[in-house]
Sequence to fold (190 residues):
Amino acid sequence: MLPASPRPLGDLDVLLLRVARDDDAAFEELYDEVAGVVYGLIRRVLRDPAQSEEVAQEVLVEVWRTAPRFDPARGGAMAWITTMAHRRAVDRVRSAQAATDREERAARHAAEIPHDEVAEQVVDRLERERVRRCLERLTAPQRESVTLAYYGGHTYREVAELLKIPLGTVKTRMRDGLIRLRDCLGVRAV
Fold:
């Protein structure tokens, strides 16, 4: 048997060898020749145009960076580039599938955690009763200001307008009322 004769170099092979020598003009030409093919291949795998553009850009940057590794004796430039593109696209699909699988497992795990609604309702009711008792210990003006602000959802300025009193008075009532609530509820000051 005779040894196989070396394959003649094509235009893309020559361009890629020039890119390997940091020839910017060669990369521009190579890009123009292969970008459409790379995008098309990736698009067939990923189906999402935005992700396809992103992966195509990553592949072309990788071509630029790894061009010195290209060996024309092992195959043509187009085959080398499209293999790289296909692998990167498949990696993206696998990565997305792995993320989906992780999210599904986490959701299943979260759904499996036992939840005692009755106990939670009892705790909520006890806390509400405790807060109600502490609110009753406030002076009437403090209770009115705190109730309007926290249960009515009003700002201090709105509370002042509703009660027709100065803003500073509302702030004082709120501060004093909240301190008394904190002490009654046994919350430590920070």
Q: What stands out?
A: The two ends are 88 Å apart (CA to CA). Helices lie at 11-20, 24-46, 49-66, 77-112, 117-136, 140-151, 156-163, 167-185. DSSP finds eight helices and no strands in the chain. Confidence is low (pLDDT under 50) at residues 1-5.
